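Minutes, project check-in
Item: structure for the 179-residue chain
Input as provided by the requester:
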Amino acid sequence: MADTVATTSPGDDPSRRDFIHIAATAAAVGGAAAIAWPFIDQMNPSGDTLALSSIEFDLTKVQEGQQVVVKWRSKPVFVRYRTPKEIAEAVAGDHADLRDPATDESRHKPGKAQWLILIGVCTHLGCVPNFGQGDYGGWFCPCHGSQYDTSGRIRKGPAPKNLYLPDYTFLSDTKVKIG
């Protein structure tokens, strides 16, 4: 009988082959992660967007009967210091036939009827309404004629909804946080 001797060539070493497979797999995983990371990272909100997720506003800048427009999330926000006459007109409108029914009390924070904070975008097509025009003493959208009362409720025109209310809280008697 002939003795058979197992001969192996240097390319057939199992431990070397396993190492090459592991190294190639690790390089492929590292390459895939290096390519995928920029795509995943771009989904995070940018720093300037996070800064605008909420803003604080000093109410001492607004006099009675005046409105200030601040920018929040790229939208105008009306901060209105209503006069007693405007508040009375808004309360009187509670019983009117409203397209989007809401009482004046539901449009402001309890005990803060003088402060009305609204997103200043017409609910029809997104125009910015002007204050002090129209039949109801509130806001008037010059683009298509929507008219809002002194509580920001739609009273006339094509707009389907009242001016929206942002989330806001009073931090003190002179400071409000929107968002």
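Outcome recorded: Residues 11-41 form one domain.
No further action items on this chain.
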